[in-house]
Design goal:
mainly alpha; 2 helices; single chain; about 70 residues
């Protein structure tokens, strides 16, 4: 049987997936166009949380657009 640890473990390092391609808006879809516009404005303002949210919403578009 092993000894119990009496000190914290090293932190877990998770990979950043910044090299993944962003979803492209589907031509002619007003929902995708608006999400792309919001994403562009958020990126220009340094709001990467909103950029990520827009990418998720675009991938999960109710019409199946990706």
């Amino acid at each position: 049987m092993s000894e119990a640890k009496t000190y914290p473990s090293d932190p877990v390092q998770l990979p950043l997936k910044t090299d993944e391609l962003e979803p492209a808006p589907v031509e002619g879809c007003p929902g995708c166009t608006e999400l792309a516009n919001v994403r562009d404005r958020a990126r220009a303002g340094g709001d990467m949380t909103t950029v990520t949210d827009c990418n998720v919403y675009m991938r999960r578009h109710p019409e199946g657009h990706q």
